[in-house]
Input
Amino acid sequence: MFRKLGDKLRRFMYGRYGSDQLGMFLLLLGVVLALLGSFTRLYWLGFLAYIPLVLAIFRMYSRNIYKRREENQRFMRMLGPIRDRQHRYYACPRCRQKIRVPRGKGKIRITCPKCGERFEKKT
Output
């Protein structure tokens, strides 16, 4: 019985996007807003929680995989420097290329991989 149900779910989800980091963030945001709305007297937060929840479900069932992947990449690029505690990010003074270097190495000379410009920064 459960095998048939699993097969039906797999066939239904075939060709659909599924979950990713942005979808999980939206689900978590919706749950947090719903909990805040129920524990405080701000009941409108509970209604506001439906927006990220519906958006997350829409993204999971979407067949436009290319567009959903782009959205997730933009989200991860925005979140990337915040989450990365082991590296520092610098922009090349000549071409503005973002360069990732390890933290805690002191003053180092960085060579831009795009234009070859050399500059020194403290990590």
